[in-house]
Write a structure and sequence with these properties.
Layout: E1 11-17, E2 21-28, E3 33-40, H1 46-64, E4 72-76, E5 79-80, E6 87-88, H2 100-108, E7 112-116, H3 117-128, E8 136-142, E9 146-152, E10 155-156, E11 177-178, E12 181-182, H4 197-201, H5 203-212, H6 220-228, H7 232-256, E13 260-264, H8 272-281, E14 294-296, H9 303-309
Parallel strand pairs: 1-4, 4-7, 8-13, 13-14
Antiparallel strand pairs: 1-2, 2-3, 5-6, 8-9, 9-10, 11-12
Amino acid sequence: MRIGIDLGGTKIEGIDLGGTKIEGIVLDDEGTERARQRIDSPQGDYGATILSIKQLTEAIAAKADCPVDTPVGIGIPGAISPRTRLVKNANSTWLIDHALDRDLAEALQREVKLANDANCFAVSEAVDGAGKGHGMVFGVILGTGVGGGIAIDGQVHAGLNAIAGEWGHNPLPWPRDSLGVSELPGPTCYCGKNGCIETFLSGPGFTRDFIAAGGPDLTATEIAVRAHTGDATAQEAIERYMDRLARAIAGVVNILDPDAIVLGGGLSRLDTIYDRLPSILSRYVFSDVCETPILKNRHGDSSGVRGAAWLWPIKK
């Protein structure tokens, strides 16, 4: 049972605002999907984004027969700055420096909660996903970028600066010449620094590393298939990736020591991670034993929008 405000009903709405699509969902208090719809994201147009979210929330509310005042949780590719109350760190750059939460509350005429999309992923998996039953869940996004979110007892932990979980913009720990490929100073990151974890562990970073070692331009899945068939360059790329992932996650475990780590994003589909990572991780964690479970997400691409809905706890 989730304890929280009384919504006067049993349904909650969630919106996942992405760079290319906006998805909406209605869940009941058991987590059962009652309505879902996806539309394209307006590109570069803040006003059109507000209007699109308004129309989408109205459409899914009508499908699920929601009360007109049902609160809405919204996952965004960024965060609201605690100082300015404006959006920061958004790769959908047209959102930056806007009061998105207030503008949406005014447009929707209902209460709105916003959270970073990685935090929504963590909440989704903590509430009724792979991390259910674990007190502190660290949600990892391994995709086009590398993000992370923290859920404690099913609730977002955003932090004082609204950046809790942003492990992807820390430097890769214990840099070295890994199988003949130097990790220093590291690739340039869009944040302006070099050697961020994201530049190594994102999908594009994995491909870039493979190409630098003499391989062709392939996706992570294609590289994994080549490794499985005995391609030496692909196998070495997998080895580098696994070791770097273990070092990066060890930093999280050493600081947070979460009860579970749940992986999401495209690279989380690589089964070799779950077979290999735990034993490699134990080399780097500052403990005599590392029992931290590394779990594959349960809700897949739906975790973001489900977690947005779960930003509003239901009182039964």
